[in-house]
Amino acid sequence: MEGLDRRAVLRTGLLAGGAGAAAVAATHLALEANRAGVGSRAAAPTAVRPAVLPFRGSRQSGVVDAPQPFAAFVGLDLPEGATRLTCRRLMRVWTDDIERLMAARGPLTDLEPELAAVPSRLSVTVAVGPGFYAAAGLDAVRPSWLAPLPAFAVDRLNRDWPQTDVLLQIRADSPVSVAHAARRLVVGAEPLAVQRWVQRGFREPLTDARPGMPFRNLFGQVDGTVQPATDGSDDRLVWLGADPATGGDGAEAAGTPAPKGLAGGTSLVIRRIAMNLDTWDQIDRAGREHAVGRRLGSGAPLTGRLEADLPDLAATDDLGFPVIDPVSHVRRAMPTEPHERILRAPYSYDDPPAPGQRSNCGLVFVSFQADPVRQFVPIQQRLAEADLLNIWTTPLSSGVYAVLPGAQAGEDLGAALLD
pTM, whole model, 2 decimals? Predict the structure, then answer.
């Protein structure tokens, strides 16, 4: 009864209170990225994976953990007139509910706790948008990167998936766990926050037989080969407040101080990208691999044999044409500066098509990085300017969020930010 009374109290008082040189440089940077990213990704999953991920700690789960096969991304908005007190109450409710759910226990108000009782590596990651900062009266300390991304020529943004005040990333090995957690967290938050949209996704599960299998999107493309290492050596690229020298939680993140209340957090970019499988089906395999710049089967660059092989951007065929097209996806996405690496954690979607359509498929693109303006935007600008895959893809939504630090013992999520 004490917990239920506390919940009731939390919900009341809502409104109170040179081309050649560039190619060489890009090749060198990609080599370093491949050495770190491909090896770290293959080594991250282990034969025995924990069924329960930790909730308490300096960082939230769901960022560097091996991605679970099922996910839901839930965008919520605060009500009109919300204040810092509203934000604190929301974080208190979610802290208690998420801790219980991740421990395979139902929240206090859960009338179907059996649905939470099966451990499934559930992770719930809480991130906040610019509207959260505005409601809490914290615009003065909002990170400069926590703002809409620049307008890209390829974007066709849909009003159905706008930037929201809060984002929940919910991932698990079981779709039942994802659905149950999403329901309980959305219902439990009302009226402190109201759901605006839900994007669900899936990806191949990691198994003991395939511990390092890369993500394949619905084009059959191996996606996200070049990744920051998750062993701590590249923490400055992912985490805010990570010491650039040691990778630990220090006073610097990628050479700049962590924003107030976000040391141990990161940034999250989410973009919904429609994929036209009908026109993709009209292209033969050679044409597809030419557009991607990699072999679909192995993920290896067209100039190599293995996925981890470095693309040779200077290689030409018998006629003198580049083996890897200058506007292929792999060339345009290749980092040109050491910091242009992001931790990708994408999911596919396959929603019911509208009448008269054959499919409604695509990618829920998700990436984590210390600074999206510095790390993500340059990559996306190159892709928007010239990428053969743009023929078959259309970005429909775009959002940027600040992932809060983890909650230490006795703390609520967002405590350092909202104090």
Answer: 0.88
Please report, to the nearest 10 degrees, the dihedral formed by the alpha carbons of residues 7, 179, 168, 413 taken in order. 40
The per-residue pLDDT for range 334-358, each reduced to its tens digit, is 999 999 999 999 999 999 999 999 9
Judged on CB neighbours under 10 Å (0-12, 13-18, 19+), 14 is middle
Per-residue pLDDT tens digits for 74-109 = 999 999 999 999 999 999 999 999 999 999 999 999
> How far is Cα 36 from Cα 67, in angstroms, rounded to an integer?
18
- Supply the angle between the helices 84-102 and 175-189 in degrees, to the nearest 10: 150
Residue bearing tokens 């080969």: 225
Backbone angles phi, psi at 270, to 5 degrees: -130, 130
Opening angle at CA 154, ends 152 and 158, nearest 5? 90
